[in-house]
User: Fold these one by one.
Assistant:
Number 1:
Amino acid sequence: MAEAMAQVKQDLGRDAVILHTRRLKKGGILGFFGREMVEVMAAVDTAPVKVVEKKPPMSAPISVANPNDTKITALQLEMSTMRRMLEQMMGQLPEKNKQSSPLMDVLLKNDVDPAVAADLMKGLPDENSMVGDDAGTARNLLIDRIANCLTKINGIDILPSGCKAVALIGPTGVGKTTTIAKLAANFALKEGYKVALVTADTYRIAAVEQLKTYADIIGVPLEIVYSPDELKTALFRHEDKHLVLIDTAGRSPGNHYQLAELQALLAVNPYIETHLVLNTATKYRDALEIVNKFSICSPQKFLFTKVDEASNLGTILNLVYHFPTYLSYLTTGQSVPDDIELIDSIKLANMILRD
Ligand SMILES: Nc1nc2c(ncn2[C@@H]2O[C@H](COP(=O)(O)OP(=O)(O)OP(=O)(O)O)[C@@H](O)[C@H]2O)c(=O)[nH]1
Ligand SMILES: [Mg+2]
């Protein structure tokens, strides 16, 4: 397989996309004594990107009335009337009864969901009327409340005996491979554990090369697997290791076929611990969609990347508030192996509440 991949790379370049791979036997008698061959179908997209200009239609298209459309319009109208009424009522409230406070403003500015923010603020002393040392009390209480939402923290626990297998899954480009390299370097080089890497990301040649480079630098073995059966064999081969880290191809949350394939891959071994990798800067609504769609792979933990690029950490709090899942690591930059840390709930609560 490695030889075939090298040939594809030589013929089509690093950006070739692997469409299909298959092992087969050629020659021999009745399937015996045949030579094992590998068939790889690959392609490369050389077409220039076309810019298609779309002109607005000259007149509005004629549409046939749909009874559902009428119902939706009626609902929209009703909702906008209710919204106007609420805004009017809020406008008539005396200033001090409005739910506005500097801490609430900080929560909202940090993209904490308004419902979550209101719940966290419930019953807190009014920080506007506090002076001196008391002024910080409301903030400290709020930090404690946020930290209490973040108590389920658990990184990778090496087993006292046996092999721990951990897979990172998630959308494309969130930092799965880089995080695998950071984890491998920390566990193998800093803590002295026996580590092996497995990649199931055989979609692009460049993806395998990326992890191979890290594996060579760290000095750990790398296995490339093309099917659930090969993953099973690779895990069996490395059962003498303390930790096997499995890299997977980035998957679009909207692609059910890809997600089902990922689910089937991870189902080969019920002991694989799966971490869903999320970019911290993802908007809450998008993060919800990702969590919902990847839930078919039953991730046990959330791992947040690119904290250094995120303007706020509201999405972490919002997600944890609604899905009481364990949190594992935060990654804070591109440097391997340094830019990764186990989550600390008080530190994270302070970061969530930063001005
Ligand atoms: N700023 C910043 N960049 C990061 C971090 N982690 C990874 N990156 C960068 O994000 C980019 C994508 O990282 P990869 O590790 O290739 O992401 P991936 O999830 O494996 O991507 P696919 O395999 O294509 O789905 C690279 O340029 C990384 O250096 C981080 O914590 N902070
Ligand atoms: Mg990757």
Number 2:
Amino acid sequence: MCTLYLQFCKDNHIDETFIAKRWVCFDVFDKHFQLSFKPPDVDACDLCDSFQARLKCNALGQADKNILIAEYESHLIESKRMCNLKSEDIKASKTTPTHKVLRTDLQKGLPTLLLTNGISFYKRKLWILNYTLFDSSDKSVHCMMWDESKAGHGGARKWSSDDCYGQNKNIVIIMCFFWIMNKYPQIKCVNLKYLLKGHTHMDADTIRALIERKRKKMNNMTILTPWDWQQMLIICTAWDKKIFKRFTSLFSGRSAQFIYRKTSVEKEKVLRSSCVHIQVQQENIAMLYMKSSFDSEFDTVDLNRLKRKSGRFEEEKFPKILPVKFPVPISEQKSYDLISLLPYVPSVCHAFYKNLQKSSVNNRNYPESADNDSLEH
Ligand SMILES: [Zn+2]
């Protein structure tokens, strides 16, 4: 914006002494206008990019091009539709006090032990995860942070290849909903809706931007403990190990209440990875309702382990307390790297790093490299 202003001055031959300095531009913009910057309305996903690239290809005949354009347009319409569905939900929640719309985002890579010295650049980092809940009804934001030694970022990966972990469609999240339903009978129904990846327009995304902005402002700021990241957010809760429940216990083992079933009550195969809408109901905990398109009807999947009526879900049988998730030790190499940096860190922080559980077996599904999608080193 400032560049545009300077160009305007130049084009209009305004005398240099009258041209405001850059900082004045920012100052006026910040203090005298109720304005802020907004991301563009149409954002692009991987699919959009691939459409764009293919359309630019000269070898493509006009007929093929037309097909591609039609596909691309229907993709854009679908993404717009999903965003509209979201807006409708939010609107409804504002007039219906019993409805709440929550949007979530898991930011996975906030590296810890960020020092200004050169050596630390090449050392493995302890990753901090930030889970953000954006409550559309009252516009409040809640951030929960934990480090990778407390818990990972998804369900247990081995359950099924059909499950899509990044998008919470896995069986673990469904068990979590069942558990919440049972614990809080006032919740009558939970709907989980998935937007098109890359077109999510998530308010929670703004939290990432906020952290990045704050960090850039604080030039040369070092990150000594996970607590330093928490300081950057206004409302932030640190999550301890005890908070991570082992929801898998609800469906694994013969005595478990539920079972992982892939066929609907109509005996049709259901694919969780392609579903866009999941529903669970207080009235009928253990039943899972799924849609693979917002236009279609719900498929019902019965997750009761026992098919006969007498053995089915009963409130009394539901475990009141769930076991806590197994700890996720960090690798020995990572622990070694972190400890090697302690001479540059105040002694008050040493115990935290020395007490991190480590293991020589790499049993983690968390990326070791710095391929996080939110922060450059
Ligand atoms: Zn797209």
